[in-house]
Amino acid sequence: MCGIMGYIGNQEAWGIVVGGLRRLEYRGYDSAGVVTVSGKALRLARSVGHLRALEDANPEGLPGNIGIGHTSWATHGGVTEANCHPHLDSKSRIAIVHNGIIDNVEALRAELVAKGTQFRSETDTEVLAELIGRGVEAGLSLRDSVVAALKRIEGTAGIVAVDRLDPERLVAARIGSPVVVGLGEGACWVASDALALRPYTDRMIVLDDSEIAELTPNSIKTVDLEQRSREKRVEKILHQPEDADIGQFAHFMLKEIHEQPVALDRTLRGRLDASIGNARLGGFQTQEQRLFDIRRVVFFACGTSLYSAQVGAYLMSRYARMPATAEDAAELSVQNPIVDRQTLYVAISQSGETADTLVALREIRSRGGLIAGITNVVGSSLSRETDFGMYVHAGPEISVCSTKAFTAQALGTELLALRFARMRDLSANDGRLWVEALERLPQQVRLMLEHASACRELAERFCNARFTMFVGRGPNVAVAGEGALKLKEIAYLPAEGLSGAGMKHGPLALIEPGSPVWALVPPDETRERMIGNLRELKARGAFIMAVAQSDDSEVAQIADHMVPLPPHHPAVSPILNVIPLQLYAYYVALAKGYDIDKPRNLAKSVTVT
Ligand code: F6R
Questions:
Q1: Please, where are the H alpha helices in 58-201?
Q2: Ligand 1 neighbourhood includes 238 CB (under 6 angstroms)
């Protein structure tokens, strides 16, 4: 998803708009642009590449107290200045920035070309700008024209528009793509993510789907597509201004890896009841009766979130004795999913905006399924479209590569599994043991982080390996997958994460003398068979880096290097095991000199299907 920032007030807009875009840079982009209005003229600056290029080309900035800006990934046409946002209508009267994709753009473009429009870019956004421009030229207000144009499009649009002949207002709208409005004294800000607003205000309203907001420095009016007025609740922006600062760390990824003890502590806060050995989940209380009748749980998510879902599915079956699966959301939506009243669907997404996850969610909802959400982003589409759910409160995750969201989400699924286990056949005593383990978890993650320098040495040794394997069993198959994903994503190294059993059915052929293998061997029911797998790997000459309990002398003997686990409850082992794998991937990417926080070809949230 690209970044949107807008401002209307009595200060110069340029610095505020560029500052907001900078806080959204982490989402990835390949061009940036800003438009301001000054003396009833639109002042436009756009540039291919980073924001820095835009600023270098405009050292004085642009004048005006009203402005909108955008950082974009090209979706229609190449990365050229003509395709950069903001886009103007053909009369250069209005300007818009737009997140999303217009599906019926070709039909609309053909219609406008037939009416004489000559487009300057290949983008769908310019088509939307032209529709809005034609509306205001025909005498509609900017808001009415935005509403009329949005009714004609199919697809998604988070937009902000400005009319140079009416420079007293901005109009923002949300069709699928998130838009939040920051409230101040004599000023309003608008952005695609609350993180951009935080230096200016801690009060916001979040537009719901199909809402349009008209903003002046002192007022906000929100309507739906039928122009009915909508009452909006003012929400508090929970981020701290420094949340998006890198602090003493070289990269956000490293910062976020080290934030995990604090993030997990926040996920747990107020949610454990040691006296009855259970989890307290506010959102779930509202559905208590229906949850009692649940007989199956289907988690669904994409990427790293899917691995946290796999951890959840394992825990749910193992401890709650509840049939549970984790599905790739992208596949679920095209599979004609079986939806019934005795199934709880659990959507997991850090951003809450992943298109494939939202499409699956809407499909399940349209069939009457009960859906819970686990997400990190307050006010995200996922949080608004599920029946109930849980925020993991990991804090903003800036690095494209997800780390603290994985552990926080896996922990969220643990709380859910504990809740169901206690509704079914887990005893109070066993529940208490699990709760105690969860209470100790943040501190144990801190201990795992102490192995950073050993992980760094291993990373420097194997940073040019042709192939790296990650193996685990039980819930740690998901962790093996997550470890491999990290390495592929930021270090661009071929890697595979799989079960120790699956390894023998083909992938073992990839192992040659010296091949690096990470093996997850916690002291649970999977240990014996994992030791068998270690011996098989060793016999083929693999270099084994094992994560195992500190006193496990058998593993220590087989492995070439061992990262020790503290004594722990088996349910939390995925969260401990993943820490060295995150550190390893980070240090491999560092050794190779890559752009760790913004890996090539990837954006922070994937808002197209
Ligand atoms: C990997 C990564 C992605 C995301 C995936 C889903 O490090 O970040 O695989 O996990 O795109 O994103 P969310 O969780 O926002 O739905």
A1: 105-114, 124-137, 142-150
A2: no
Per-residue pLDDT, 241: 66
What integer pLDDT is reported at residue 1 of this predicted model? 57
What is the atom index within ligand 1 of the atom nearest the CA of 377?
A: 15
Name the stretches of the chain with pLDDT < 70: 1, 28, 74-77, 241-242
Output the pLDDT for position 152: 96
Distance CA 490, CA 68 (A): 32
DSSP state of 394: -
Cβ atoms of 112 and 130 within 8 Å: the answer is: yes
Superfamily of domain 3-244: Aminohydrolase, N-terminal nucleophile (Ntn) domain (3.60.20.10)
Q: Taking a C-beta distance cutoff of 8 angstroms, is the pair 416, 282 a contact?
A: no
Provide the residue type at 436 as one letter: E
Residue 2 designated active-site: yes
The helix (run of H) or strand (run of E) holding residue 314 is helix 303-320
Fold match, 3-244 / 450-609: no
The whole model's pTM is what? 0.84
The pLDDT, as a whole number, for residue 284 is: 79
Cα atoms found within 13 Å of the Cα of residue 606, Cβ hemisphere only: 16
Helices 404-423, 573-592: axis angle to 10 degrees equals 170
Question: What is the pLDDT, as a whole number, of residue 82?
Answer: 82
CB of 375 within 6 A of ligand 1: the answer is: no
Q: Does domain 450-609 have CATH number 3.40.50.10490?
A: yes
What atom in ligand 1 is closest to the CA of residue 382?
16
- Number of H-type helices and E-type strands within the chain: 21, 26
Query: Is it true that domain 247-448 has CATH number 3.40.50.10490?
Result: yes
Q: Is residue 90 exposed (0-12), middle (13-18) or buried (19+ Cβ within 10 Å)? A: middle
Report pLDDT for 75.
65
Q: Is the CB of 597 under 6 A from ligand 1?
A: no
Is 409 within 8 Å of 263 (Cβ atoms)?
no
Beta-carbon contacts of 585 under 8 Å, excluding residues fewer than 6 positions away, are 401, 459, 483, 486, 487, 489, 490, 491
Please name every residue paired with 604 in a beta bridge, in sequence order, or none if there are none.
none
- Tokens 């607003």 identify what position? 197
Distances, alpha carbon 126 to alpha carbons 106, 119, 132, 404, 504, in Å = 12, 7, 10, 38, 54
Cα of first residue to Cα of last residue in the chain, in angstroms, is 12
CA atoms within 13 Å, Cβ hemisphere of 545: 25
Cβ neighbours around 250 below 10 Å, total? 12
The residue count of the chain comes to 609
Q: What is the residue extent of each domain of the chain? A: 3-244, 247-448, 450-609
**Which candidate in 232, 255, 404, 604 is catalytic?**
604
188 included as an active-site residue: no
Atom of ligand 1 nearest to the CA of 405: 14
Ligand 1 pocket member 304 (CB < 6 A):
yes
Q: Is 65 in the pocket of ligand 1 (CB under 6 A)?
A: no
